[in-house]
Amino acid sequence: MGCKLNHLVTNFVSLQFVFPDDRTINSHILSLLPNVPPKPDLAIGTTTHLPLTPDSLSANPKFLRILHSVLSDHAFEDASLISQAQAMASSSGSSLGSGGAFFPQQRAKRRGTNYGGGGGAGGDGAGGASSQGGAGGGGRGGYIHVYDHRNPPDYGRIPWPEDIFGSLEVDSGGNFVDENGRYQESGTYRMVTRAGFLGLSPFLREKLVYRLKKEAEKL
């Protein structure tokens, strides 16, 4: 029977399930589904070490594809991302409180002061958003990051590349372009870092688990 994973970051509430992997010695299957026996095709991945470490996880490529598909379909509906988009369009929209930075459509030189800081996250941007440069003002279209909540950035800062799932495009009115934001995968996201394990907002986590359950019904 699966057990809940004790996370390497003590203040992170983990809801993943861990099962022995009968296919490999000293290996465990990590899943968001409590199914017994587990469904490896839909698992997050496998690990040879508990508690989980950044080096011990072998991520499941199919799970990652499902994850990004869910983000593409639903990230624009997430309340925190909607708030970021609206803040971007405000008259003082040079930065987004507790949600990272806004990236104007035109390219700009990166400035080191826009990254990191304090005990929170920070780093280069990634994907469609990061390639656009630094923070901008209100009234212009641009991009916002969809990032992992395990390591939220300090006010006005950019999440580390390893924490960025992708980006959404926003118009000058703070609305998502084409209504869905045209999600762009970053290509730099890592499932496990020293800051923690996969951390979605409650809304996006619910959508992901629902999709996984639907996929499980097909197996």
Ends distance: 20 Å
What is the share of helical residues?
A: 10-25%
Shape: globular
| Uncertain spans | 4-14, 91-101, 106-121, 123-137
> Biggest sheet, strands in spatial order?
1-2-3-4-5
Give the overall average pLDDT: 77
**Multimerization state:** single chain
Tally the beta strands.
11
| Share of β-strand residues | 15-25%
SSE topology string:
EEEEEHHEHEEEEEH
Main beta sheet: 5 strands, antiparallel
Number of helices: 4
Structural class of the helix and strand makeup?
alpha+beta
Work out the radius of gyration. 18 Å
What is the element layout, followed by pairings?
Layout (H helix, E strand, L loop, with lengths): L2 E2 L12 E4 L7 E4 L13 E3 L9 E3 L1 H14 L4 H10 L14 E2 L22 H4 L11 E6 L16 E7 L13 E2 L6 E2 L2 E2 L4 H17 L1
Helix pairs in contact: 1-4
What does this structure look like?
With 219 residues, the protein is an alpha+beta fold. It has helices at 61-74, 79-88, 127-130, 202-218; strands spanning 3-4, 17-20, 28-31, 45-47, 57-59, 103-104, 142-147, 164-170, 184-185, 192-193, 196-197. A five-stranded antiparallel sheet has the order 1-2-3-4-5. Strands 6-7-8-9 form a four-stranded antiparallel sheet. Strands 10-11 form a two-stranded antiparallel ribbon. A hairpin with a 2-residue loop joins strand 10 (192-193) and strand 11. Helix 1 packs across helix 4 (202-218). The longest helix has 17 residues, at 202-218. The radius of gyration is 18 Å and the shape is globular. The model is unreliable at 4-14, 91-101, 106-121 and 123-137 (pLDDT under 50).
